[in-house]
Write a structure and sequence with these properties.
Layout (H helix, E strand, L loop, with lengths): L34 H11 L4 H8 L3 H8 L7 H10 L4 H4 L23 E2 L3 E5 L9 E8 L16 E8 L1 E6 L5 E4 L3 E5 L4 E5 L5 E8 L4
Antiparallel strand pairs: 1-2, 2-3, 3-9, 4-7, 4-9, 5-6, 5-8
Helix pairs in contact: 2-3, 2-4
Length: 217
């Protein structure tokens, strides 16, 4: 990629009814968190009614309603069902929201969208180009280069990078590691401040998906 383009969950809850020895249970309680409002917040963030959320969790609607209104302390089995229905871990039920509001941002890039940017070694096609202030830079690239000598030196830029091979075979050269050959379906994640270049080993130009982190945005 051209240089110019470029916590662990804090377990803050308490388990008044948790059994000792469960791996998911925080070792020591910190700031208490009212479970009811937290469950309601998680449910509404998904746009679910009480009936829908209860169905997802395998709980009775009345049980979920009592949990949300602080009228009962659920058993640990009920907590596990509830977390499973919300597709989160049990500790996340007791993790305060970071205050980040839901966003409606979305961008669709069809196969015909995106103007290619060709260089001597790569041909990039930016994805989600209509979105500004992104935290990731996703794009596909056709790898034209066949040897390391075709580059004028190492490519380096800020951030971390994921490379996923779509077609063909590529060789990733980096300044601190031995070259790595990658085939369709293979991927590699690396620090992009480390010098790196990619060449195609296929008779045809290989294609890859690149996703580069852009910080907080």
């Amino acid at each position: 990629m051209a240089a110019s383009e470029m916590s662990d969950i804090e377990q803050t809850g308490i388990f008044r009814i948790a059994r000792a020895g469960d791996d998911e249970v925080p070792e020591a309680p910190r700031e208490p968190l009212d479970l009811g409002p937290r469950v309601r917040e998680l449910r509404k963030a998904r746009g679910w009614t009480l009936e829908q959320a209860a169905g997802q969790a395998g709980l009775a609607r009345s049980t979920l309603s009592k949990i949300e209104n602080g009228q009962m302390s659920p058993t640990y089995e009920a907590l596990k069902k509830l977390a499973g229905g919300l597709s989160i871990s049990v500790p996340q039920l007791f993790t305060p929201s970071r205050g980040r509001k839901a966003s409606s941002r979305m961008a669709v890039t069809t196969a015909e969208d995106g103007q290619p940017l060709a260089t001597a070694t790569y041909e990039h096609r930016l994805l989600a180009g209509a979105l500004t202030a992104k935290r990731m830079l996703p794009y596909t690239a056709r790898i034209r280069a066949r040897s390391l000598e075709e580059f004028g030196g190492w490519v380096r830029h800020d951030g971390e990078e994921l490379l996923y091979v779509l077609t063909g075979i590529v060789r990733l050269h980096t300044e601190f590691h031995e070259p790595v050959d990658l085939r369709r379906g293979d991927s590699v994640y690396y620090d992009a401040t480390m010098g790196h270049n990619v060449v195609s080993l296929s008779p045809e130009d290989a294609t890859i998906l690149w996703v580069t982190s852009l910080g907080e945005g």
